[in-house]
Amino acid sequence: DTGVSQDPRHKITKRGQNVTFRCDPISEHNRLYWYRQTLGQGPEFLTYFQNEAQLEKSRLLSDRFSAERPKGSFSTLEIQRTEQGDSAMYLCASSGRLAGGNTGELFFGEGSRLTVL
Amino acid sequence: AQSVTQPDIHITVSEGASLELRCNYSYGATPYLFWYVQSPGQGLQLLLKYFSGDTLVQGIKGFEAEFKRSQSSFNLRKPSVHWSDAAEYFCAVGNQAGTALIFGKGTTLSVSS
Question: What is the C-alpha separation between B111 and B98, in angstroms, rounded?
């Protein structure tokens, strides 16, 4: 079990540039979540997928943000025309279904830290 | 509105002393409750979870939590804190449908010698 992996771990970019983060969930998990965490705050929900379908998006996910999960495996989160306020840790998590029901438990990656200069 | 409140932003405990971190939630459906820990530079790790049944749940690293429906609380406890427990602790609430967890803002635990 390799866990949830995220890439890159750290990205520094200039304001106005586009960035893309990748998340590889635990292989047997059908749900994948993106969260954002800023200093001193808890993780804030951005969006989640069940298989390849994007089921929910937070109002935090502005038009500059887009997430995809082609084929229901890995996911990408793209931020276009980055702003300094986008600086944060972007966390990916996955969850799966056990016999008898969904555990609701999320397994997190170590995150991708974005710094926008 | 669905929310999680962790009233204590920062707590300092002496090594060997007991610990209680508070968590209150507001949730319309039957809650699934979680405590996660985050050490510097590390991802979030699940300490324990409550779905149903016994309201006192045991987790990893000697932690336990008690669900009190009447108080909408899910406080985390440990009888004797170790220096390695210094970290940030997050309470979260979700549901059986597996929609996104809602997290509190976290409590930072410092351990003094």
Answer: 34
